[in-house]
Every structure is written in C-alpha cells, then in structure tokens.
Amino acid sequence: MLKGKSIVLGVTGGVSAYKAVHIASQLTQASAQVDVIMTEAATRFVAPLTFQAVTGRPVATEMFGLGSNCGIQHIVLAEAADVIVIAPATANTIARLAAGIADDLLCCTVLAAKSPVILAPAMDANMYENPVTQDNLSKLQARDFITVGPASGRLASGKEGPGRLAETSDILAAISQALGRESDLAAKHLVVTAGGTQEPIDPVRCITNRSSGKMGYALAEAARDRGARVTLITAPTSLPRPARMQIVDVCTAHEMHTAIRDAISQCDALIMAAAVADYRPTRAAKDKIKKEAAELTLELERTPDILGSIKGAFVKVGFAAESSNLLENASRKLHEKGLSLIIANDITARDSGFGSDYNRVTIVDQEGKTDSLPLLPKRQVADRILDRVAKLLG
Ligand code: C5P
Known about the structure:
Elements: E1 6-11, H1 19-29, E2 33-38, H2 42-45, H3 48-55, H4 73-80, E3 83-89, H5 91-99, H6 105-112, E4 117-121, H7 125-129, H8 131-142, E5 146-147, E6 151-154, E7 160-164, H9 168-179, E8 189-194, E9 199-200, E10 206-207, H10 214-225, E11 229-234, E12 246-249, H11 253-263, E13 269-272, E14 279-281, E15 300-302, H12 306-309, E16 315-322, H13 326-336, E17 341-346, E18 358-359, E19 361-365, E20 370-372, E21 376-377, H14 378-393
Parallel strand pairs: 1-2, 1-3, 3-4, 4-5, 8-11, 8-13, 11-12, 13-16, 16-17
Antiparallel strand pairs: 6-7, 9-10, 14-15, 17-19, 18-21, 19-20
Helix pairs in contact: 1-3, 4-6, 5-8, 10-14
Cytidine-5'-monophosphate binds at residues 253, 272, 274, 276, 278, 303, 305-307, 318-320, 333.
C-alpha cells in the first residue's frame, strides 16, 4: 500500500514532534518516499537533520529556501504528494489551515494540494477542548480533512486529558486508508468476523479453540486499506486492535450471531473468518465447579450455524478448516451454507493455519473452480481473497 507512494509529512512545533521521527522511519521502511516539511517552531524541538537521516531525503524548512530543483517548492511538493499528513498538528497550524492562511511552507503546500490531508492534532487538553480549536477542526473535517486522534492520557503538562498525539500505528492506518479511498472496495461495507468463540462452562472456564484471529484481522485491515468501511466482529484475541474500523467485541457464538444480525443491514459482504464453536455447554454453572467428583461429564448442545442461517443479498464468504478431504468438505459447505466463496485450509499443515502468520489456502467458488494459493503471509492471502470479493461486487 505504501510502497513507492509520495508522502509529505508536516511536522509542527509541539512536544510530540519527536514522535514524528518514528512515523517518518516507519513510512520509509515501508518503501514510501517521505518528504518532511518542518515549521520553524518544530525545528526548536527536533533537528531537521534527524528527519533527513531517517528518510534519506532533504527536509524543507523555509518558504523562500533554494531548492535543488528550481521548481516552486510548495507547488512541487503539493503536486507530488499522494497524501499529506501533519503530525503533530498544533492548535496554531490547525487554525491557520482553517483560515486558509499561507504564511509558511507547510500551510502553502496544503493549500496547493489536491491529495488527502490527514491531521493528527496534539496539544494541551484545554487548547484542544477550546471551542475555537473545535470549530477549526470541524471546519476542516467538513472540507474533507481527515483527523486521527488525539488520544487521551498523560500530557506534557502532567495533566490527564485529550491531546496526546495518536499512536503511530493509528496514523499509519489513516495514511493507508486515505491512499486506498479510491480503491476497489471504496464505499463498500464489509463485515468481517475473527477469533475463536468462547462458550462458558462456569464463571472461570470455557470451551474455545486454537484460532488466533490473525486471518480475520488481516482481512479487516486489508479491506479498510482498499477503501471499505469495515465492521470487525471479534471473539477475544491477543492481537492489537486494528485502527479506523468499527469493532464489536463478542465472546460466545450466540453473541456473535446477534452482532452479525445487527451489522449486516446494508452490508456488501460478510466474511466469516471466525472459528465459531459448534457445541456449547447446555448449561453454564453459576458458580465455579469444584473438583469434588472423580469424573465430570459436560453436556453440550449445538450452536446455531450462523453463516448457514444468515440470508441477504450480499457476498458471503466462509472458511473451511479441515483436517481431511479438504476440497470435498469445503465444496459441500459452500453449497449447504449458500456461500459465494469458501476458503479451504488444511489445518494439519505445520507451516500455516492456526496461530501462524502464514496461510496456504484454496479459494473455491460456486462453479466449483478452485484457486490454490501458495504459502503466503496472511495479509497477502487476505488481499487475494478480497480481489475475488471485489470482482463479485463488480
Ligand atoms: O461447518 P463449519 O464450522 O466447518 O464451517 C465453517 C464456516 O462456518 C466458517 O466460516 C465459520 O465462521 C462458520 N460457522 C458459523 N456458525 C457456526 C460454525 C461455523 O457461521 N456455528
């Protein structure tokens, strides 16, 4: 997504300017071309040399500086940018952008740009909450500026409140999303499920499975980066929460069923990557079960087949995790559950599947055509699946 993209990173004069170095570094490592523009105040916090060393490119600080190519610097930067991100964006820069003031290189570049502009505000809580800053941000949002954060927490003043620069991962997610907004899933709503459900035995114990949630999260993030509005319905996982999507937390198959029913009105595709329990304890004990008896028998009942029971005019994608007769079982499930596609994976393979960052899957469609993918990182598998979903959505 970021490879070869031209990103202008505007850095303004706030305490969190040092965090922009990490952003510049991450973008550069993802093979983006990063041009940093610093305001005069920003150079009081971090030396331009630091950004130059990290990005391997000259850093622009002066409105009337002599550039290496004789073009007009703000026009050249504005025209080249696939996206402009200002992190941190101070109250002062936000106010000047809202007013259309162009008295420094950064504001001039934004004014001249046609690309998406992302603002990551960072300032003291009182400044952020001041109605004038809120008005300025609303004005800019109404003009299609994208905002990320601020996060709440400890501020440089020692106080707690909103005003911390958003996490680098959230800012990178916003950049990927902005780059993908003209992409093939733009304006589509995708509901993705992930993780292994947990069915309570008593208040302490549950029946669950080995699903890590990685495949579902990769699908949700890839869909977001291709312009989709994503609702991620997730059973408990230990994964970081993906940014810039709606996340619904569930535990049991029953809760997942309810969450999906609520989410699918007007969705374009439902992708069920979750490993839903097929059986649950008939009764969950109210109190912790004591280890008194030598043996304990649990009575289990079937959970509803969510995918099989959900109907609607949207693309339905299921997963078939199989340990034998992979394609046969997958095709049967595709027809039984009325799916558009089923993603078959052999869970006996050691190098892929549950818990792994890699997966080797076969995509099966309604006509029985199969597409066997090689072993790939889950994010790439996700993109291959989404290629097919995008095609089905026309
Ligand atoms: O029938 P099986 O559990 O193998 O089917 C797997 C597919 O069905 C997965 O996409 C899974 O998310 C979904 N599923 C479901 N409801 C269940 C069990 C599985 O929607 N109770």
